[in-house]
Design brief:
The complex is a heterodimer of chains A (305) and B (189). Chain A is 31% helix and 34% strand. By secondary structure, chain A is α/β, with parallel strands linked by helices. In chain A, strand 10 and strand 11 form a beta hairpin. Chain A is globular, with a radius of gyration of 20 Å. Chain B has helices spanning 9-104, 129-140; strands at 109-116, 119-126, 145-156, 161-170, 178-181, 187-188. The radius of gyration of chain B is 47 Å and the shape is rod-shaped. The chains are: A alpha/beta (305), B alpha+beta (189). Chain A binds chain B through residues 1, 3, 5, 76, 81, 117-121, 123, 133, 135-137, 142, 146, 156-161, 164, 167-168, 171, 178, 202-203, 299-301, 303-305, and chain B through 1-9, 12-13, 15-17, 19-20, 23.
Chain lengths: 305, 189
């Protein structure tokens, strides 16, 4: 912990297969983007043997940018966590709520020997009930992942979930109301793959990540959306938001609009985000669609501890 | 907005607040120490100034006492002797004036009385020379006045009165010259 933890910067990392997307934020009266970038690495989070390469790549990055011991936020992939929406009585105190959530997860993960890390967030509440999102991840996996990043010289303070970071960023950029009851799909398309996230009232009801290397992008998108339509019949998609830097984005938008009869919008206009004077504005605007998860992580409430 | 943190952030938060509380307490203690040190420094400075002032005053008091003692020891005797001398002369002078009171009983009028060192001049008027003889006899009988002599006798035409001028010597000097004239103030010369 720094001697005086105020007026410091933070780093957010979106670690994907073969690349690490990062954003450095300075906290003051408002958050200012100090630096950003994408660094390559050879490996994937799914392959635990390639985590050494991740540490090596991060070490070089930390040394090059002098980011030693910087507070860092990362995101676990959606498929690496267990999430559930539960309802609990509104009369429970904070402590009781926590105990009840833990008991609930213990029941759901009955038979699982491994320890889990749990966190929860209140989605909405009324006089009688609280709708709570509970997220759990294997403690071993989490501590190993955090250890790999800390080993590179950073200090991981936050471990979020990439899907929720993306939803947060898209909701902010598209000015979506949290009260909206429609199911909204977000397609984060890049050259190597895509992530489909469908959420309803902030809760992610469906998520799918696909690798596009050597595969037909249209077919993969169609299969993902059909998969959602069959598994989540109760929440049909009302709106689809397309984002990312895939070169065929416009064709894909037309394809989805033609194949599935729902509104498709392309996330191209971003609200003005304060950036430091030395940051190249054009490069930032070009890169922003790739950095939405990072941006969602950077939008979190500031953590001093 | 949903915000998930799978790290044990409650423990970290608690540790942070403990750290921040200790840090704040240390800062406050440091600030109070600095303020107290400043106040102590100011008070010590004022105390030092007061002590210096007291020392100076004490020195001055000692000097004054020394000067007073010196003045008492060196000027006490002359002052007393001068006073004694003044008292002595005054006594002789009073004695003379008391004696001169008897001249009025002889029926003559004194118009002027001069003292110059030990010399005494009596000027006056009378109707007859007999009165002057009686005054001379009276003055020659006084112990404080010696060598009494009638220096001048005159007659005023018209009302037939006699003026006279008598001279005598006092036993001791009065210390300063004096002149008394009828219907006039004391003139010191």
């Amino acid at each position: 912990m720094p001697v005086w933890p105020f007026f410091t910067s933070s780093l957010v990392l979106d670690i994907r297969t073969n690349e690490i997307r990062w954003l450095k934020i300075r906290y003051g009266r408002q958050r200012i983007v100090e630096d950003f970038g994408i660094i390559p690495w050879r490996g994937s989070l799914e392959e635990s043997h390639s985590w050494g390469e991740l540490t090596a790549a991060l070490q070089l990055f930390v040394q090059a940018h002098r980011l030693q011991q910087l507070a860092t936020a990362i995101a676990l992939p959606m498929h690496a966590v267990f999430s559930k929406r539960i309802q609990l009585s509104a009369s429970l105190t904070e402590q009781e709520l926590q105990e009840e959530v833990y008991a609930h997860i213990q029941r759901d993960l009955l038979g699982m020997d491994e320890q889990v890390s749990i966190d929860f967030s209140i989605l909405d509440s009324d006089v009688y009930v609280k709708h709570i999102l509970v997220v759990a991840a294997k403690k071993d996996y989490l501590s190993h992942y955090v250890g790999v990043i800390n080993q590179a010289g950073l200090q991981v303070k936050v471990v979020d979930v990439d899907g929720y970071a993306l939803v947060r960023a898209v909701s902010y950029v598209s000015a979506l109301s949290s009260e909206m009851t429609d199911a909204i799909a977000v397609f984060d398309l890049c050259h190597s793959g895509f992530m489909l996230v469908v959420f309803q009232q902030q809760y992610i009801v469906f998520t799918q990540r696909e690798d596009l290397a050597g595969r037909d992008v249209y077919l993969q998108i169609k299969q993902a959306l059909q998969s959602y339509a069959t598994t989540c019949r109760y929440a049909p998609i009302q709106q689809l938001i397309l984002c990312g830097t895939h070169i065929q984005c416009e064709e894909i938008r037309d394809f989805i609009a033609k194949e599935f009869a729902f509104s498709v919008s392309f996330l191209s206009a971003f609200p003005r985000i304060p950036i430091a004077a030395h940051v190249d504005l054009q490069a930032w605007q070009n890169r922003l669609p790739d950095l939405l998860v990072c941006y969602g992580l950077a939008m979190r409430k500031r953590i001093l501890w | 907005m949903v915000e998930i943190n799978l790290l044990p952030w409650q423990e970290h938060k608690l540790a942070f607040y403990k750290y921040f509380t200790v840090l704040s307490l240390l800062l406050v203690a440091g600030l109070i120490s600095i303020m107290l040190s400043i106040a102590h420094g100011v008070l010590v400075y004022k105390l030092h100034r007061l002590q210096s002032r007291i020392f100076i005053l004490q020195q001055q008091a000692v000097t004054l006492r020394k000067n007073a003692a010196y003045l008492n020891t060196t000027s006490h005797i002359p002052r007393e002797s001068m006073a004694e001398r003044i008292k002595l002369h005054q006594l002789n002078f009073i004695k003379l004036l008391f004696a001169l009171r008897g001249i009025a009983a002889q029926g003559i009028c004194l118009t002027r009385l001069d003292f110059k060192k030990a010399d005494v001049q009596l000027l006056g008027m009378t109707d007859s020379l007999l009165d002057i003889s009686r005054v001379m006899a009276y003055l020659q009988g006084l112990t404080i006045l010696q060598k009494v002599a009638l220096e001048k006798v005159g007659v005023r035409r018209g009302n037939y009165t006699h003026s006279f001028n008598i001279h005598g010597l006092l036993q001791s000097n009065l210390g300063w010259d004096q002149k008394y004239v009828v219907d006039a103030d004391i003139i010191e010369e």
